[in-house]
Amino acid sequence: MATLAPAGPGEAASAALDELSLNFTYGASGAGNGSLSGAWYRRNQIHLFGVLLAILGNLVISISLNIQKYSHLQLAQQEHPRPYFKSVLWWGGVLLMAVGETGNFAAYGFAPITLIAPLGCVSVTGSAIISVTFLKDNLRASDLLGMTLAFAGTYLLVNFAPNITQAISARTVQYYFVGWQFLIYVILEILIFCILLYFYKRKGMKHMVILLTLVALLASLTVISVKAISGMITFSMTDKMQLTYPIFYIMFIIMIASCVFQVKFLNQATKLYNTTRVVPVNHIFFTISAIIAGIIFYQEFLGAAFLTVFVYLFGCFLSFLGVFLVTRNREKEHLQQSYIDFGNIPDTTLGRKAWRETNVGQNTTRFK
């Protein structure tokens, strides 16, 4: 992670180069400042705890998604499938999903938004690894390349995200909440949101970019409120109680409302478009929106050197490219090699034929 840069532009560039060399130094003599050294760890251990929570949370989410998928496949193979919400396996996946999201929520209390939000790529790549291992999906060359790029991007993100440790108290949140930067940002966001909503509702334009942009605009408010709530809870546990301030409950309402409407627009996007198109675009839009929110509201890149920001953005680009390669054409392969018996789906050609034959046989038996 990058440290705050000196005042002068020349000194800032020099410090960024020093940081770049230190972050890639492992075998040098002396105490060492590289990414695996004790000095680097002590300097960033609070943020690393947040990173660990986010990575574990995203991996648990990957496991939960594959468990739910496996439960659906099992139910589809049964002669008389039960509703999925009666499956113990499906509820186990839901429980793991809640645990993973809790880990992500807690991570925002220990590390900057600009560090935690891009780590969502771990969920996508982890899900691909698990599906290949346990659900016997095909392992493609693009999967290996995508995972490699995502891991490389994650490494750069962890090393070059802003090294700003903020104690998020209620007064801090109130100060940022009424700041002119955030007020201008909210006005612009509301304006863009209303324009897109007009085209979506009145003009019937349901393009994927419009839907996912609406999701991203809401997501920026979600990550701001989530970090505020998580930070205030952490501050309450380590210092002074913050849950008595009205700003805590204001942020809580913003978090719930923005999450509910995010789910609505995201569900609409998944109904109209393939998941393989929605997942990477949504990840990119969400991450960009979260980074902008962290920069504007919490001022997380204040004083950062240009080279540090450039390497950080390059890490984001690698993670985006990795997610795209992992999800590319994944759904088409599932259609070609499906675990679902088409005789159980009346809406398909084979399914309609099998469904008619089954029901005719049942009716003949019933009237005998």
Morphology call: globular
Low-confidence stretches: 1-6, 20-34, 332-368
Structural class: mainly alpha
What is the tally of beta strands? 0
Q: What fraction of residues sit in β-strands?
A: under 5%
Order of helices and strands: HHHHHHHHHHHHHH
Total helical segments: 14
Q: Name the average pLDDT.
A: 78
Rg, nearest Å: 24 Å
Approximate helicity band: over 70%
Report on the biggest sheet.
none
Question: Span from first to last CA?
Answer: 77 Å
Pfam family, one: Mg_trans_NIPA
Organism: Piliocolobus tephrosceles
Keywords: Membrane, Transmembrane, Transmembrane helix
GO molecular function: magnesium ion transmembrane transporter activity
Describe the structure.
With 368 residues, the chain is an all-alpha fold. The chain has 14 helices and no strands. It has helices at residues 9-23, 38-77, 88-107, 113-116, 121-134, 141-160, 170-177, 180-201, 208-238, 246-272, 275-297, 306-327, 330-336, 349-367. The model is unreliable at 1-6, 20-34 and 332-368 (pLDDT under 50).
What keywords describe this structure?
disordered C terminus; 0% strand; mainly alpha; 368 residues
In short:
The protein is mainly α and 368 residues long.
